[in-house]
Design brief:
Helix content of chain B: over 70%
CATH architecture of chain B: Orthogonal Bundle
CATH class of chain B: Mainly Alpha
Oligomer: heterotrimer
Number of strands of chain C: 2
CATH class of the largest domain in chain C: Mainly Alpha
Shape of chain C: globular
Strand content of chain B: under 5%
Strand order of the largest sheet of chain C: 1-2
Radius of gyration of chain C: 27 Å
Number of helices of chain C: 15
CATH superfamily of the largest domain in chain C: MetI-like
Distance between the termini of chain C: 32 Å
Helix content of chain C: over 70%
Order of helices and strands of chain B: HHHHHHHHHHH
Largest interface: B-C, 108 and 98 residues
CATH architecture of the largest domain in chain C: Orthogonal Bundle
Chains: A alpha+beta (377), B mainly alpha (268), C mainly alpha (353)
Largest sheet of chain B: none
């Protein structure tokens, strides 16, 4: 058996000729007067671990349920492997779903739960139970085969739900907040388990989550959703380094946002006038006109704090350290600027500093022009 | 509640005394040697003997049991379907009508239901030729109809509480809608259906008014026989029957209560 | 569902044939089942066969299964619950006749070949004019109303006590409330005869205690009917009240107390209003059926305890006047429809979905 190519390596979304595995075209879903999903179009490629990330009520679960066939779109088309899913009911779709509540059948044993999907395909009891046993071995639960779900712990139930969803060897697996009910340590372990299973089996995963750390860890690409609309789609690094809006910049990690006005055009550096930071130099961005309002996004870890004025660095401001949070591997500072604005700065404590910057100190905050991101929305 | 002090427990106790005193008196006087309620003539089980020799009572009891079982089964089937349709199908033509037809029997005065059903049966007989004459069949139909409403209430409440993602998961794994119903829905709501069946059975067993209207010659149910006896006054063999019923019910309810407690640990 | 579908279809067709055969055999009394059970059992079997047949037909015609599932309970209830009311209405417009059945046909051919419809509001006029019926309706409402109030007064504290009780006492108490409900209603009413008679238990105890000299007349009075109704319908009042009270959040009561409300004020301003849906449900479950009660007034009431259920029964069984009985029923139905709709409206507001 050849190991399927891992999408994280081949990155098919960068290839203009690549055919998407799942094509979501102008999907809208209305519940009465409310539009839960508004005209979403998205392509997902084979072998991806795609994360739909957003807060509660943003429509991500609705979108997932439309892929699974539990909701019908009000408008638009869904194609899976080239096939229009319009009149295909949930039981005939080439997808399997792992539910947030796990939805294990309480009156069936663990092995019957896992074997259920194969039994529905018409496989004999012997075959189905044999495959179920293999699957349980994969998730390390083979000794629990005859137990009932209520006799298992949360983490064990999650693994049964996963085994049940994988056994039919479908090409697409939909996961609705799969790690939500687990505690932190278990969650971290399971995250890597999930990636390992996904890469081994070559199955395309679509994961819905509200946890940005989880999305960043798991995903080959992330789709950030808000209010029924996809704000940005991209690899985790892309989303983090080059967010396309204040919403995305603020949603992933923390960020300092400054409103400003574009200055006159220049060949190598652009100037933006801000109230908080004064004039800021940024790499030139195409398509901006002088006088246009923009926002500058500056990540806390990209700012350096020094006691003395830095030389040779184009962007710097002075401020007063209001608060210091020592977290061990890093320190988080709240710095009040001249005009009263408070910004967030983090420094990693790589070297043991004998004389760290502390409360009420006057410092200089500086950064490189290249790390500032200009946002127009 | 600490603040309420003794008021509540006293009223509650009085209430339970009120509820149980007549029942206890039924039991006590079933063992009274004398026929009168006034005098305690000594402990005796003669009334139980008389009861067991009373052919009319026994055949009426047998008829009531048959009617009860068949109409309870019918009522459970109809009621469960109605409950399923009302909870799982969000919108359909006639939903309001079905809701009304399923709520009204719960409170409709029995004389109205009984009379109207009899008139229907008579009209059907004259125009369609069926049902020919009143008897078991008409009683079964009548009981199934009004008991179905009670089953619907019970089944509906269980269906609402049930985790719907269980049904979705089954569909996702390839089960068609009918499969899902028999594989997943029914087993999960089974305890509610059993209590629905039992409720329908009890209601059927206990019904006097409707049976009086729609029954026919040779199909007298137990309540009908008891009623004709007690209209004339106190009849101690009825006490004996009452005691037997009370004992059976008490045992059954206790068993059911214990089973339910075990069940609730298992099912979501 | 690849291999499963044709197997399911074949077995369904087989089931139709098998059930049809079974139904016929039952009707012919060939099978060793008690003869009179044969008819209703064959009904059950025939119904199941028809159901399978309907599924086949529906598939063949392209009707979605969904509609079949809706149709089964809908049709049954429509035919056996709704249509009877139509028949009731039609007969309330007929005249009594010495015939089988004892009412006039809807239409007849006159001697000149003309087509006449026989229908009149005579019966309703009769009801309106005769004071007996008017008084019976009013007294039924009065008796039902007073009984409901007493049931509420007795049932509320019991329900409250049970709702506030900790487990396992709560389950036991609930069981104790439900148990009488499962024993025969008729027998429990009968028990009160023994209590309320001149030589009954209550009089015996009272005269033994020396409280009275003459036995109290309690049987065949309105008083007895009140007791009978409150007694038999009490579980119907307690259970909905309990269901609402048990959902009451303790922290609401604590908050009220914290803000300075005495227990009485807390009860009146917080508990009572929040338990209103339970009060309405319980009251309607007692009031509506009590209006048309027959058994309790028949066994415990006297000749001057006028209740409309009894009037209907007598009209039907004693006078054999089906049309008037039907008219009485129609008026009762109209009386009862408004509270029923109110109950349904309250239930709808309570339902989450």
């Amino acid at each position: 058996m050849t190991t399927p190519a891992i999408a994280a390596d081949t990155r098919p979304w960068t290839d203009p000729d690549a055919q998407p595995f799942i094509s979501i075209r102008h999907i809208t879903k209305r519940f009465g007067d409310v539009e839960a999903v508004k005209d979403i179009s998205l392509d997902i490629y084979r072998g991806e671990l795609f994360c739909l990330l957003g807060g509660s009520g943003c429509g991500k679960s609705t979108l997932l349920r439309m892929l699974a066939g539990f909701e019908a779109p009000s408008e638009g088309q869904i194609l899976i492997d080239g096939q229009d899913m319009a009149h295909v009911p949930a039981d005939k779709r080439p997808t399997n779903m792992m539910f947030q509540s796990y939805a294990l059948f309480p009156h069936m044993s663990v092995e019957k739960n896992v074997a259920y999907g194969l039994l529905r395909e018409g496989k004999s009891k012997a075959e189905a139970y044999a495959s179920a046993a293999e699957m349980l071995k994969l998730v390390k639960l083979e000794s629990f085969a005859k137990r009932k779900p209520h006799q298992l712990s949360g983490g064990q139930r999650q693994r049964v739900a996963l085994a049940r969803a994988l056994i039919k060897k479908r090409k697409l697996l939909l996961l609705d907040e799969p790690l939500g009910a687990l505690d932190k340590k278990l969650r971290e372990e399971t995250q890597f388990e999930l990636i390992r299973i996904q890469e081994t089996l070559g199955v395309t995963f679509i994961v819905v989550t509200h946890d940005q750390d989880e999305a960043m860890t798991l995903a080959t690409r992330i789709g950030v959703m808000d209010n029924g609309v996809i704000q940005q789609v991209g690899e985790p690094r892309e989303i983090y380094e080059t967010p396309n809006s204040r919403y995305v910049a603020d949603f992933i990690g923390s960020v300092n946002l400054f409103e400003g006005v574009v200055g006159p055009a220049a060949p190598d550096l652009m100037r933006v006038e801000t109230t908080d930071l004064g004039a800021v130099s940024v790499p030139p961005v195409k398509g901006l006109t002088q006088g246009q309002t923009v926002w500058l996004a500056l990540r806390p870890e990209r700012i350096t704090l020094t006691r003395n004025a830095p030389d040779g660095v184009p962007n710097a401001v002075q401020g007063l350290v209001e608060d210091v949070g020592y977290v061990g591997h890093m320190s988080a500072y709240r710095v009040r600027l001249a005009n009263g604005r408070v910004i967030r700065v983090t420094q990693s404590n790589r070297l043991r500093d004998e004389d760290p910057i502390s409360w009420d100190e006057h410092i200089h905050a500086s950064w490189n022009a290249s790390v500032v991101r200009v946002l127009t929305q | 509640m600490k603040r309420r002090g003794l008021f509540l427990p006293i009223v509650a106790t009085l209430g339970f005394v009120f509820l149980y005193a007549p029942i206890i008196s039924l039991v006590v006087f079933s063992f009274n040697e004398s026929r009168l309620v006034t005098v305690w003539g000594g402990f005796s089980t003669r009334w139980y003997g008389e009861l067991l020799n009373d052919g009319q009572m026994l055949s009426a009891a047998w008829i009531s049991l048959k009617v009860g079982m068949i109409s309870a089964t019918l009522a459970t089937a109809i009621g469960t379907l109605a409950a399923f349709v009302l909870t799982r199908f969000s919108r359909f033509r006639g939903k309001l009508l079905l809701t009304g037809m399923v709520t009204a029997p719960l409170v409709m005065p029995e004389v109205i239901t009984g009379l109207s059903l009899l008139l229907l049966f008579v009209a059907m007989e004259t125009t369609l030729g069926w049902p020919s004459g009143r008897g078991l069949t008409t009683v079964v139909i009548a009981h199934a109809t009004f008991c179905a409403a009670y089953v619907t209430v019970i089944a509906q409440s269980r269906l609402r509480d049930m985790d719907e993602s269980l049904e979705e998961a089954a569909r996702d794994l390839g089960a068609g809608p009918v499969r899902v119903f028999f594989d997943i829905t029914l087993p999960v709501i089974a305890p509610a259906l059993i209590s629905g069946w039992l409720l329908a059975f009890t209601l059927s067993l206990d019904d006097l008014v409707i049976a009086s209207f729609v029954s026919g010659p040779g199909a007298s149910t137990l309540p009908m026989v008891i009623f004709s006896k007690v209209r004339l006054g106190v009849s101690p063999d009825v006490n004996a029957l009452a005691t037997i019923i009370i004992v059976i019910v008490a045992i059954a309810v206790t068993i059911a209560g214990l089973l339910l407690r075990r069940q609730s640990k298992k099912n979501p | 569902m690849s291999a499963a579908a044709p197997v399911w279809a074949m077995s369904r067709r087989g089931a139709v044939l098998a059930l049809a055969a079974l139904a016929v055999l039952l009707r012919m009394d060939v099978l060793p089942i008690a003869a009179d059970a044969g008819a209703p059992l064959s009904l059950l079997v025939a119904a199941a066969a028809l159901l399978f047949l309907a599924v086949e037909l529906g598939d063949w015609l392209g009707i979605s299964r969904r509609w079949l599932v809706i149709a089964v309970p809908m049709l049954w209830l429509f035919v056996f619950f709704l249509v009877p009311f139509i028949v009731l209405g039609r007969i309330s417009l007929a005249e009594p006749m010495i015939a089988r059945p004892p009412y006039s046909p809807l239409w007849e051919r006159g001697p000149d070949g003309s087509f006449n419809i026989i229908a009149s509001f005579e019966n309703f006029q009769f009801l309106y004019e005769d004071a007996l019926y008017r008084n019976a309706y009013l007294s039924s409402i009065r008796v039902a109303g007073i009984s409901t109030i007493f049931a509420l007064l007795i049932g509320y504290p019991i329900a409250y006590y049970i709702a506030r009780s900790p487990e396992p006492r709560r389950s036991v108490l609930l069981l104790l409330v439900i148990l009488p409900f499962w024993t025969s209603f008729l027998l429990r009413v009968y028990a009160w005869i023994g209590f309320l008679r001149r030589d009954g238990v209550i009089n015996n105890i009272l005269s033994w205690l020396g409280v009275i000299d003459e036995p109290l007349v309690m049987m065949q009075t309105d008083f007895a009917v009140y007791i009978g109704i409150v007694y038999t319908y009490l579980p119907f009042m307690i259970l909905p009240l309990y269901a609402t009270l048990v959902k009451l959040d303790d922290s609401l009561l604590e908050a009220a107390g914290d803000l300075g409300a005495s227990p009485t004020v807390t009860f009146l301003t917080v508990t009572l209003p929040l338990s209103l849906p339970g009060i309405v449900a319980g009251s309607m479950l007692v009031f509506i059926p009590a209006i048309g009660e027959y058994v309790i007034p028949a066994l415990l009431g006297g000749p001057d305890t006028l209740m409309i259920g009894r009037v209907l029964w007598d009209e039907f069984f004693s006078s054999r006047d089906w049309p008037v009985a039907s008219a009485v029923a129609i008026v009762m139905l109209v009386l009862v429809v408004v509270p029923i709709m109110w109950l349904q409206a309250v239930q709808n507001r309570e339902a989450p979905k």
